[in-house]
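quick one, 495 residues, struct below
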Amino acid sequence: MSGAPGQFPFTRGIYPDMYRSRLWTMRQYAGFGTAEESNRRYRYLLSQGITGLSVAFDLPTQMGMDSDHPLAHGEVGRVGVAICSLADMEALFDGIRLDTVTTSMTINSTAAILLSLYVLVAKRQGADLTKLSGTIQNDILKEYIARGTYIYPPRAAMRIITDLFAWTSRELPQWNSISISGYHIREAGSTAVQEVAFTLADAIAYIEAALAAGLAIDDFAPRLSFFFNAHNDFLEEIAKFRAARSLYAKIVQERFGAKNPKSMLLRFHTQTSGATLTAQQPDNNLIRVTLQALAAVMGGTQSLHTNSRDEALGLPSEESARLALRTQQILAYETGATATADPFGGSVHLEEQTRGIEEEARVLIDRIDSMGGMLRAIEQGFPQARIEEAAYEYQRQIESGKRIIVGVNRFQREEAPILVFEVDAALEESQRRRVAEVRASRDAAAVVRTLDELEAAARGPENVMPRILAACEAHCTVGEISDRLRAVWGEYRPQ
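---
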């Protein structure tokens, strides 16, 4: 067994007491329609006991398009909330003090813009920015690997990320400047080993880029965070979390020479697996989510989102979101799961599985290193191909009956359809009107000036974050800011 909880290499947990002294943060990922609609859902979830907000943005916002862009038609507010300007961000957090909650924002290509808008709202509320706490996902590499919501070529996107690292280390010292995501890699079909290896290979690339930009490892590494999937194989998932912690601590210490123990801590958020949820017999998803959440807790997560039973069919209803939160609360307060740090530590099977995942992941990382690192590996299509192969094999096992999915290829039954939550189509037109009103009411000269200054910064070595912040304060839109950066760096087109 690898040491004690809170001791290097942190296999058994990053803190000695784990949940005995502090529970994980209970988040419920939410966002749809307009900012006002999402604000109502956040207020409801806060009233029901969530301890941290988690914001989902719609596809146009993720892709740097305003709601009135022709390509945004039909996608506004569908898979998340539409945010185009400071006015939207103010409406999103109306009545919610940002210095009293932690907020996670799942946004990547436009992360610097959305964080700037969030900071401006906090400033208008009178918040002390040095105490502002939360996480911006800001993980662009996994977009090229598994998800696809990229805008700029990889090396330009890495420039924004390292600028954001440097800026947050000075301005937002309590803010997690990145959440390096294995979640979407696993959702795309990877194995547990690939999820660990590709996520940590991404982390290595970010650390190397930050070091190349002149940052010191112990100045930024303590604010790096991670985001993992909780899949169906209960014991494998616990072992996966333990192996990831151990491998990361060794990499940061041995490879990058970190001295601060906080630099070596793999702090992570977990979300139960959306890809495992079934449209058939959706109530079965309650059991899947409960076991996945328990695996995350047994594996030592710092933050958790539990999916809702109806997410294979549509956006979660208010009732389903509440029940998903209650799942976390029952695990925390009724099961005794929080009484022991690393309760499975010492199990012969689990220790062997932990070592196996760590060793196999290290072999994959070595392979990526031999290719010149993760950026080169992505450009050559290596992680993408490995994930596609794993996803194909998983689906082949389901279709052959070798892997049983209850209600899908075994134990099927006829059932009546359930009601699915739907976003009001009229909300798109409402959002388009708000964008037009913002453009009509702002100082046009300030818009042109701040966008020109941003473009000049992007063409040179200057950190772009202060320029993005100034553009947001002048009520430039997400699309306008993204378009100026497109003018400098172009758009990425996969080969």
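The mean pLDDT is 96.
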